[in-house]
Specification:
The protein is α+β, with helices and mostly antiparallel strands. About 20% of the residues lie in helices and about 35% in strands. The protein is elongated and about 40 Å long. The two termini are about 25 Å apart. Bound molecules: zinc ion.
Length: about 90
């Protein structure tokens, strides 16, 4: 398996605790960029059933960063947004 990312359609063994399996779900992610703090809700993730660690696919991570950059460009200081689903 490539380091860092995973096949979105498969449950995986948690690389943090190396014990639990991950389950698909949605989580809230907080990103801070300089003066901007933005919380994305309903972000798709794989969550470890053992330690609770959250993992995002490369696609989701990329979309999160892009949406955070947009918020920074808009001059947002703090905001809570629903994560825009990616096609
Ligand atoms: Zn774990």
């Amino acid at each position: 398996m490539d380091a860092g990312f995973y096949d979105e359609d498969q449950a995986m063994k948690c690389p943090i605790c190396k014990h639990g399996n991950t389950q698909p779900g949605t989580v809230s992610v907080t990103l801070e960029r300089g003066a901007t703090t933005i919380v994305f809700r309903h972000v798709p993730a794989e969550v470890c059933e053992n330690c609770g660690e959250e993992f995002h696919s490369a696609k989701v991570t990329e979309a999160l960063l892009k949406q955070a950059e947009t918020a920074v460009a808009e001059g947002v200081e703090i905001d809570v947004r629903r994560f825009a689903q990616i096609a």
